[in-house]
Amino acid sequence: MSDRVDRAGLQVDRLLAEFIETEALAGSDVTADAFWSGLSTLAHDFGARNRELLEIRQTIQSQIDDWHIRHRNQPHNHTAYTAFLKDIGYLVPEGDDFEITTSNTDPEIASIPGPQLVVPITNARYALNAANARWGSLYDAYYGTDATDGAPPSGPYNKGRGARVVAKSRVFLDEAFAIEGLSHADARRYHVHNGALLIDDQPLVDPSKFIGFKGHPKAPEAVLLRNHGLHVELVFDRTHPIGSRDQAGLADVRLEAAVSAILDCEDSVACVDAEDKVVAYRNWLGLMKGDLTDTFEKGGKIVTRALNPDKVFTAPDGSEVTVKGRALMLVRNVGHLMTNPAILDRDGNEIFEGLMDAMITTLIAKHDLARDSGNSVMGSVYVVKPKMHGPDEVAFADDTFTHVERTLGLARDTVKLGIMDEERRTTVNLKECIRAAKSRVAFINTGFLDRTGDEIHTSMEAGPFSRKDWIKRKAWISAYENRNVDIGLACGLSGKAQIGKGMWAMPDQMAAMLQAKIEHPQAGANCAWVPSPTAATLHALHYHKVDVFAVQAKLKAGGSRAHVDQVLDIPLAAFRMWDKRQITREVENNAQGILGYVVRWIDQGVGCSKVPDINNVGLMEDRATCRISAQHIANWLHHGVVDRNEVRAIMERMAVVVDGQNAGDPSYAPMAPGFEGIAFKAACDLVFEGRVQPSGYTEPILHRRRLELKASL
């Protein structure tokens, strides 16, 4: 039993209480009594409302299950189905047109389209890397990935590859910053004369793209350019190994890359108790105070990493121009479902973790608001709220943060809300979800994996779903993606808030990402998720090619591209003409991904990692990817596509594969041959109990099993 202290009727783990009182509250102008009293109100009064909302979720799901059971083996009647969803309150009436009134959003949210990183907040090194990924070397990104002529070579620097990298970078410069009558490939000298940038005495085609320089104007150390709101820094150094071989002395091309980053307390972490939550909150505090550091060994050397400073240049008129050196940081709170044993209410029940996150992460963000040059220059706090089901749950989040603001002495709507459009009841009611928080919405996005997991669970009784790759090809997914942007634009998000798209999950396949992910800005999204700082640098190229705000204006003028009826087109398997080999392969692929992720989650507390798939392709896995795989197998089990014994045998075979893939990890505990470890049992639970999990979420099982393992240590 953990050591607890009483605070305003709450039984708080002493570790968390000491962190709050000695670290988080210090310098916040919030008293301990006010904080604990406000949190107690959240836990008890708001907690009751939270439980009611979860009960409504379950009631609605039961009604949908019953409808599908009654109509099983009949042709799907879309008209009757839609009418039924309206009758039970799943589909709510859509009100009059409106636009959000969100104010004081930072440029990174309102006016600078670009990549967005999502990282686990419990890993200080990753958190710092994400914050510092505001700037990245295009030379390094091209050289160190398959974006240039296949996989990067091992061993010493390859001059031939380096020359190709420089040539590719010059092509980018020609496209984004064209010179009158000259190519950057032929340039020999960059200098500033009478406030203008000249390249071999030729001006830029658009001189307004020159923003500033460092050093002497006749031979600058750096030149700052801007295109579509994103900066590019040309670094000159003739003593540098690269610059010494370049005719213009150009040593690097640095791109403004991850303009924003989500520090995640949710899907990419494994926080199951006070010990874990304090790690998360302490890292967020370090980021908000600006003093987070991490020391580690890299390449045989001890390295200490801290937050990068801002960049300072001389503007064309001789004044000083400052550019942010760090990504704008948002924090993703836990959703409405989960509770956490870190704090118990007056009846001895765990309080809802999302309510705890709301109060504590906002308290911590107050430290940034008190700084002159910190995270938000507009005095705002950015909280991304996941896994909300419909407008009532968004309204609950809005009310929660109003209470938090009042408790912490913040102005109304200081907290800006990110609505993740990843549950079907939110998707089909997105306009009303936005309306429910119209004065604080700063972000909406689509997330295919969680959205598909919910799609399967919501329609579990409707029949067997298509194979995962085929689900992506169904009409509902394009309707979902298009409608999200269209509604966001119709509700006035352009110029005030982010409209985002989901993750590129293959961090080692950057050439493929460069081919595919340009679709996101072309779709009107002013941010999209990437798995690494290097990916952010390369994805930034897409925002130089595409003027996102011009795309948004055109889309808004064109009207809606999708109707809710298309979103409600359930991606069931139409013909089910699978042979045994195809069925087995599909289940193996799902099982291998689940096991590869869960074994690290349970045994090592790693909530997000690069997991090799069945073909040894490294994929970024978090609870969202795990949710879809578990729900898919659960669906096929439920409808007899595969039986329990077959799935168990596949899980054991894939556990052997996963053991082999992790053979080089000295901290890894193999699952085979006994298959009795807690991690293997957790993976099986996700599959065999998946049909009855709330909304098909993985969290309840993973948390229970992780706590079981921690108790055994």
From TrEMBL:
Binding site for glyoxylate: R332, E422, G447, F448, L449, D450
Keyword set includes Cytoplasm: yes
Protein's pathway: Carbohydrate metabolism; glyoxylate cycle; (S)-malate from isocitrate: step 2/2
EC numbers: 2.3.3.9
Positions bound to Mg(2+): E422, D450
Cofactor(s) essential for the protein: Mg(2+)
Location of the active site: R332 (proton acceptor), D622 (proton donor)
One GO biological process term: glyoxylate cycle
Catalytic activity: glyoxylate + acetyl-CoA + H2O = (S)-malate + CoA + H(+)
Subunit structure as annotated in this protein's UniProt entry: Monomer.
Function per UniProt: Involved in the glycolate utilization. Catalyzes the condensation and subsequent hydrolysis of acetyl-coenzyme A (acetyl-CoA) and glyoxylate to form malate and CoA.
Annotated NCBIfam families: malate_syn_G (TIGR01345), PRK02999.1 (NF002825)
The protein, known as: Malate synthase G
